[in-house]
Design brief:
Helix content: 10-25%
Structural class: alpha+beta
Number of strands: 16
Order of helices and strands: HHEEEEEEEEEEEEEEEHEH
Radius of gyration: 20 Å
Oligomer: single chain
Shape: globular
Distance between the termini: 48 Å
Length: about 290
């Protein structure tokens, strides 16, 4: 019996290894290998032999970076530790975006607040240059005390926003009812730290306290299980029937739906689909069709 149990455990571990290996279409290197520091001069830094990246903001300028590669579908993970203390007026943006006026974009934006008040996580999805699909959340932890993982899962069926692997939002492909879905434009990963005190904290009522500058956000453990887009072609092959490349077909399972309901019940503070005053002529089509957005 003990020998059979050991054999079963060994088989399970081997299968888990095979599955995890097959998912890595584009794996992580160092920040030197994966990203370019694009603006902010010395306010953006790569440290610890490429294992840590920091962005800073002062009264003169913010800073930002972007991925060297473009992706067309994938799961993107990054650990962030946000600006601590009085971060009112600051925004740490972390997002996927294509180029051009009809761009697609998938956004996390972290809106700073005065000391002791919670960050707001602002999410949005742009398709063909049009956004206005905002959802906002509080977090169930202090995002300035330690690193937490913020993820995009993007495949032809849906986009899932995750925090520490807990889904907080789903945007489903509803092309069948005329809702555009981002699936044709490859995107790079971007992040920036900038001053937005005209709107970021309490609608702009609270301004940035520059005596607290410089403000700094921290990044580590980037990983991309994704399809790299290069010279008009994708690194990914069509999804196989054995289910190995599960991010390419993944949707929320029962546990994921329960987690999503928990987040939306206790931590969601704004949902465009529930803002009837904003859409007096009728809510967007996807709001009338899907339960989770």
């Amino acid at each position: 019996m003990a020998t059979q149990t050991y054999h079963r455990i060994s088989v399970v571990l081997l299968l888990l290894f095979i599955v995890s290996s097959s998912l890595t279409v584009a794996s992580a290197g160092t920040f030197y290998e994966d990203f370019d520091l694009t603006w902010g001069d010395q306010r953006a830094k790569i440290l610890d032999n490429g294992e840590l990246l920091t962005l800073s903001l002062d009264q003169i300028c913010g800073s930002g970076f972007q991925s060297k590669r473009e992706y067309l579908f994938g799961r993107i993970d990054m650990q962030l530790k946000l600006v601590s203390g009085n971060s009112a007026g600051t925004v740490t943006a972390y997002y996927l975006s294509s180029d051009g006026p009809s761009h697609d974009e998938i956004d996390f934006e972290f809106l700073g607040n005065v000391s002791g008040e919670p960050y707001i996580v602002h999410t949005n999805v742009y398709t063909q240059g049009k956004g206005e699909r905002e959802q906002q959340f509080y977090l169930w932890f202090d995002p300035t005390k330690d690193f937490h993982t913020y993820s995009f899962l993007w495949n032809p069926r849906c986009i899932i926003f995750l925090v520490d692997n807990i889904p907080i939002r789903v945007f489903n492909n509803e092309e069948s009812i005329g809702v555009p879905f981002p699936k044709r434009q490859p995107m790079k990963l971007y992040s920036s730290l900038w001053n937005a005190d005209q709107w970021a904290t309490r609608g702009g009522l609270v301004k940035t306290d520059w005596s607290k500058a410089p403000f700094t956000a921290y990044y580590r453990n980037f990983n991309a299980n994704a399809c790299i887009w290069s010279r008009g072609t994708s690194s990914c092959t069509p999804v196989s029937s054995n289910g190995m490349a599960n991010w390419q077909t993944q949707e929320l399972n029962a546990n994921g739906r329960r987690s999503l309901r928990w987040v939306q019940k206790y931590y969601m503070i704004y949902n465009y689909c529930a803002d009837f005053k904003r859409f007096p002529e009728g809510r967007p089509r996807e709001c009338r069709h899907a339960r989770f957005l």
